[in-house]
Amino acid sequence: MKRLSHILVIALFTVLSCNRTTVRSYSEDLDRLDRALVRAEEYVASKEQRISTIENLLHSRGVTPLQQYQIYGELYKEYQAYQFDKAKEMLEHQERLADEMGNRSMKNDALLEKAMILTTSGFYLEAERVFQKLDTSVLDNQQMVAWYNARQKFLHDYHEYVHTSSIDVPDVDKQTFYQDRILQSTPSDSHLNNHIRILRMIEDGDYEKAYKENIRFIERLDKNGRDYAVQTYWQGFICENLERPAETIKWWVESALCDIRGAIKDNASLCSIAIKLTDPDETDRAFRYIRLSLDDAIFYNAKLRKVQIASTMPWIEAEYIASKERQSRERNSYLMMAVAISILILFICLFAISLYVKGRRSARLIENKNEQLAEYTRSMIDAEDSLRKTNYELIEANAAKEEYLGLFLSMCSGYLDKLKKNLTRDQFDSELKSFYKTFDTSFLSLYPTFVDEFNALLKEDGRVVLKEGELLNTELRIFALIKLGITQSSHIASLLRYSVNTIYNYRAQIKNAVLEDRDNFEERVKKIGSKH
User: Fold this and answer.
1) Given 3-state DSSP classes, what are the helix, strand and coil percentages for the chain, each rounded to the nearest 5?
2) Which residue from 142, 322, 378, 473 lies 20 to 30 Å from 231 (Cα-Cα)?
């Protein structure tokens, strides 16, 4: 009997081992990252201590306006990648002091920094207003290099931000011109010169050359400096385009480690790692990384990073839910296996009892076997309770789908934009129809009575009539998005591939057919299905 029990144990562990994933080449890098994340609060505390020490200098007796200007400059460097609002505030203090001292050059320095941080944070209109304040005819050589760098960064980032819309970026073709001026005006071994050269290689698609050049550049950088975090991030981006996934993770981990050590909240690497972790067994880790990235973006408080991270969350959330569903299925399989083993053990116990009876064994031994059987039964009850708890967790996870459906649509729309340049018109139209159908099905699964309740708000001659086979039409999709909280016509137009004027006209046309309280019509649409 002991031999048979050993065989059952070995069989169980053999089945379990079949579900283990092999150790990936980047697992050690991720372990290093996890260990650093545990100490993240220590690095933040050290950053806060440095800031406090510098701020105390402002209150020292006899500090001149020039010294105050310099102190605010030091504070700006600390806040630059830590807290956007505070960094901008430090530059505004420098502007004020420069005006008081009548020093135009010092004010231009502050304005150039302000234009750059507004650009990197996604405040493009505000950055453009700062550029308009700058008179390039009075800038010295160093300031002109800073101006070229800020302008080329602005044109690149703003164009990337609005390229899917109908917005034109003035002077976008001058980006290359500004980069050329930087290369001509800076030493070939300077940081900015190397950074721009590598960016040009990336933009030209010469990833092999960019890989080699950037490796040499990274070797010269301080591993605790922000430049190291930036260049290692770009190295990961280069490796991704070279289809080297393990090396991509490695460099992004290097970048993330530098971000953590420097308490850098304006970071991109941790989010990139989360998106790259497509292994089902890494879903929990990916979800944890994306939440930490979003927390950093919220703390930094620049709108661009929050939008970028939020657009990836529905996909990772879906993967997380799918992982939990897979785990639930695995638990069911293990439960069935446990039942089968329990039945087998039951037969073994019965056979043992029969042997004991035949062998005139004592009643005490029989009672012990019955107690063993009861223990197995209690284990089964515990397993059922655990399964029930898991099912409740899945129900709660499903409730989150409504919250993230809007973000999920934005992500899908973004993917369509990326696919557009690689597809024919017919293929893209087919993908677009599939996108509409997916949205219609998903939305109606959440609000099955939406069409009827929507029409109930309209006059009889103005109600929406669907064609045969339609789930929703354009008018209904517009107000379905409004129901999900997407109210801006520009955002709706981007998702549904219409012009803003077309969306506005549809909204106005429907409002003209409202039975009553036309001004609050959209608020009543948002309440559809709330009682279900």
Assistant:
1) 80, 0, 20
2) 142
Let me know: does 409 contact 477? Beta carbons within 8 Å. no
Determine, yes or no, domain membership for 195: no
Q: Name residues whose C-beta falls within 8 Å of residue 48's C-beta, 6 or more positions apart in sequence.
A: none
Domain tally, the chain? 2
| HEC readout, 46-71 | HHHHHHHHHHHHHCCCCCCHHHHHHH
Pick from 216, 187, 186: which is nearest to 201 by CA?
A: 216
5, with CB counted inside 10 A (0-12, 13-18, 19+), is exposed
Q: Show the domain range for 502.
A: 425-526
263: left (phi over 0), alpha (psi -120 to 50) or beta: left
Plot region of 102 (φ>0 → left; ψ -120 to 50 → alpha; else → beta): left
> pLDDT tens digits for the chain (532 residues)?
334 334 333 333 333 343 334 335 688 999 999 999 999 999 999 999 999 999 999 988 889 999 999 999 999 999 999 999 999 999 999 999 999 999 999 999 999 999 999 999 889 999 999 999 999 999 999 999 999 999 999 998 888 877 655 566 677 788 999 999 999 999 999 999 999 999 999 999 999 999 999 999 999 999 999 999 999 999 999 999 999 999 999 999 999 999 999 999 988 899 899 888 877 778 888 889 988 988 998 899 877 766 666 666 565 555 556 555 555 665 666 666 766 677 777 767 677 677 777 777 766 765 776 576 567 556 545 545 653 564 445 334 444 554 556 666 767 777 777 777 778 888 888 888 888 888 888 888 889 989 989 888 888 888 988 888 888 998 889 988 999 888 888 888 888 888 989 989 988 888 888 888 888 888 888 888 765 4
For residue 233, tell me if it sits in a domain. no
Residue 375 shares a structural domain with residue 429: no
- Whether residue 498 lies inside any domain: the answer is yes
500 & 430 share domain: yes
Q: Which of these three, 398, 415, 440, is where a domain ends?
A: 398
Q: How many CB atoms lie within 10 A of CB 271?
A: 25
